[in-house]
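User: Could you write out the 3D structure of this protein bound to iron/sulfur cluster? I've included everything you need below.
Assistant: Certainly. Input first, then the structure.
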Amino acid sequence: MQNATLPVMERFYTIQGEGKNQGKAAWFIRLAGCDVGCVWCDVKESWEESKHPVVLISDLVAEAVQSGTPNVVITGGEPLLHDLWQITKELKEAGLEIWLETSGSSPLTGYFDWICVSPKKFKAPLPEVLNQSHEFKAVVFHKSDFEWVNTFIPNLNPSCELFLQPEWSKKNEITPLIVEYVKTNPKWRLSLQSHKYIDIP
Ligand code: SF4
């Protein structure tokens, strides 16, 4: 698959701000296109794939290597709208660790060291993607969401790590609710969007 491309909204070097890998340096590749439509989405500019350039996979891999980090995050948009076999194969051959951030609502393609599924009410995650995830990170927007997030547990691998993260615009209201929830349900952990608190990408 020479000269293969993917539509890309942006790529940048920062730290992973949330979830299990919070605080680790990572090169981010944000693919364009999303069919999920979350009302509180903070990257709505990513939704329209046609508004973003296509980039050679070989260039994406070269940039990731050049960044000097061992870790690459493939995010979106919804990255699983694209075939990720080729890019993940080339990233792996370059010796990089690959993490995926997905809603899990489209079939899984690609080789990943860490799969984080963040379920969305607007398009449910597929059971087979849930089952292969290492991390389940649910964004809590309303107090009724605690019941909703638990409906996915039967589809998760028992070793999957569970996180609850307040939706950013409601963090002052929701964070204390998550703290209390985690205290009584300690299989869950609190995830905060640390990159937003310190105003980095
Ligand atoms: Fe936005 Fe992600 Fe929801 Fe798509 S899945 S609408 S990119 S928050």
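Residues 146 and 181 are 8 Å apart (CA to CA).
User: Perfect, thank you.
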